[in-house]
From TrEMBL:
Biological processes annotated in GO: mitochondrial RNA processing; regulation of mitochondrial mRNA stability
Keyword Mitochondrion part of the UniProt annotation: yes
Classification via PANTHER family: FAS-ACTIVATED SERINE_THREONINE KINASE, FAST LEU-RICH DOMAIN-CONTAINING
Region (Disordered): 1-26
Keyword Mitochondrion in record: yes
Organism: Bos indicus x Bos taurus
Domain RAP: 329-387
Single GO MF annotation: RNA binding
Highest taxon above the source species: Eukaryota
Cellular component terms per the entry's GO annotation: mitochondrial matrix; ribonucleoprotein granule
Name of the protein in its database record: Fas activated serine/threonine kinase
Pfam families on file: FAST_1 (PF06743), FAST_2 (PF08368), RAP (PF08373)
Keywords from the named record: Mitochondrion
Amino acid sequence: MRRPRGEPGSRAPRPTEGATCAGPGESCFPSDGPLMCALEQERRFRLPPKPPPPLPSILRGGQRLEAALSCPRFQRRPQQHLIRSLAEASPEELTPHVMVLLAQHLARHRLREPQLLEAIAHFLVVQEAQLNSKVVQKLVLPFGRLNYVPLEQQFMPCLERILAREAGVAPLATVNILMSLCQLQCLPFQALHFVFSPGFINHISGTPHALIVRRYLSLLDTAVELELPGYRGARLPRRQQVPIFPQPLITDRARCKYSHKDIVAEGLRQLLGEEKYRQDLTVPPGYSTDFLLCVSSCGSVLPVRAQDPFLPYPPRSCPHATRDPAQRVVLMLRERWHFCRDGRVLLGSRALRERHLGLMGYQLLPLPFEELESQRGLPQLKSYLRQKLQALGLRWGPEGG
């Protein structure tokens, strides 16, 4: 017998919590079910992303830029027209916090924007008396990383005064500043004499950052050895020296799946044979090489394992020793992330490594990413490598494999 409408129990069952009904008489689907999730993903894919909320109009100068630079969405998708406006603001409107945010932003995203870098350099000079070395180390970071020497004439004298004033206060910040200047080939002798002094070295021993400071001091000592023949001050004692880069750089480890290293290694294996090259070899005083070849005086590629692949370091340590006639050729991959963004300028750390390897006597053969990316398949890559090696006058036997 049918129940009359309106009696208890005559209503249709309610949907369970979290379910969605499209209309009367239609099925109900859980909101977290696979169908609803797929529909939601499709909706998000088809709809344009929401624009970032506009910055309040009441914010001016430094406040507006600080708000923008602190926004995660801005850091992921930088708006060039906004950060360029920083160069138009007067230093009085800005704070050290804003300028540090900008410096970190430029360094992180490899943005070599001369107008913005000059604004940071000018700010540092104008605010010299108010800045300590812990802030200065962050402000100078992008100059070394982006391999940019500012046009601001007081930039270097200002940093030398800050180092003289603050060197004993914050050892790690002092060494960080010198590392940036080392990449720019602008090391001040007085600061080097201080950080190589027994008092400074004893001061940092036993501190939490002792190992990283010793590694940086070892690199600075290498720069003195190779690039500053006129320096006559204190040097890092041999017993305090450690390998500069004991493992591949972080950026290379993070992007290894995008690297051309594996296919170049296979090309060399088929072209020369496995015994004719070494991959990922670290040479004294601690620089990594992508691929190293030993070449005789007549240009023949020699089996690497039958030779000493290392050149003596320091180069001037044995001036009267018999010179090894074998030449060491280093193939250097120049990947896209080894350069400043949208430019052809090598990052400071890369330029420093190549410069020092060359000064130590290694012959460098760069392999630019544009050329590597244009090779279609292994046969083309082998032909490309053959042309590169033959251009140096290298000779080898039949291809292996």
